Amino acid sequence: MAESHPSLFSAAAVSIPLPTQRAMADLVAAIEAVVVMPAYQQRVLAWAPAAAGIEVAARSVFFGYDFHLAPDGPKLIEINTNAGGALLNTRLLMAHGEPVLAQAIETEFVAMFRNEWQLTRGDAPLRRIAIVDENPAAQYLAPEFELFRRLFLRHGIDALIADPGELRRQGEQLFCRGEPVDLVYNRLTDFSLDGENCADLRAVFAAGGVVVTPHPRAHALYADKRNLMLLSDPVFLDELGVPEAVGRCLLAGIPRTIAVQAEMADDFWRERKQWFFKPAAGYGSRATYRGDKLTKRVFEEILQGGYIAQQIVPPSEWPVSVDGNALAMKLDVRCYVYAARLQLVAARLYQGQTTNFRTPGGGFAPVFAA
Length: 370
What we know:
Blueprint: E1 14-16, H1 18-35, H2 38-45, E2 63-70, E3 73-80, H3 86-95, H4 99-121, E4 128-132, H5 142-154, E5 158-162, E6 167-170, E7 173-176, E8 179-181, E9 183-186, H6 199-206, E10 211-213, H7 216-223, H8 227-231, H9 234-240, H10 244-253, E11 257-259, H11 265-270, E12 275-279, E13 289-290, H12 296-302, E14 307-311, E15 316-322, E16 325-338, E17 341-350, E18 363-369
Parallel strand pairs: 1-18, 4-5, 4-9, 9-10
Antiparallel strand pairs: 2-3, 2-16, 6-7, 7-8, 11-14, 12-13, 12-14, 15-16, 16-17, 17-18
Helix pairs in contact: 1-10, 3-4
């Protein structure tokens, strides 16, 4: 991987004070307290795709809560529901002298998948997991797919890596390469499974014939960026009846986020330097723009719809030694979460407008308590 992914791992390690890590955990808990409220679900599901209407017992694996560390505390930039890199980061912990911790976390990951299965199927045996993404061998994090396959095998669960187009419906059961699939570990960025290549997966999932995790409903409830508009709106939170302490936590930890509307174009353009513009259904920093880097042409495209604007919270910096030179790199913190519990905290070090794995000396870095 050193040749194929030279900037996937940084040699640096990041220290974050325990109170800061607790503040991130508190914000995760505050969001969970709101997401379970029926009125919140009704509001966000109203703008969600049809697949999100399928209610399932599974919680969804590998939520990724991404933070910038501001002087007054951590600020949530976005939530992902198929966050990659968790198993890569346990290997990074091993490389930094923490094999026991890493193995404990990996065991917890397997228990998480078993729990997703048991929530849906009870005591029935979990026999086979399909790790699914489009053209998986071509994905940048393809090595992690293989790590997961081997992890499942070590714990007695058959596993394979597949493109969604390889999945076949037979009655109300899902098959891949002639073998039945019990659970799909979903790494797709087609969050609602709407693509043609997902037709059989979508049909069997809708019929209850396969457990899919993460699933479309989780994305709709947590990761649609329009949800941040509600979670950072004091009026909405008050109308929802959110407890005062929970509301304070949300408003302190989530930068104000609003819809981009054409009738507000003059105000947005005048104040663009304080906003970060993101597509509501986007992922992986695609088509996102810092206001101070925005051209008039791109701004006109943003006004066509589908964008939110989030108050800019500059990332903190972390010193990294590259070829004997000390460089200040931007720092993004990802909390891997399951069922409201932080399983692993990792950092991404980079230079440029958004997180990337192209910065020499940058990439994933382990996080330890300061």
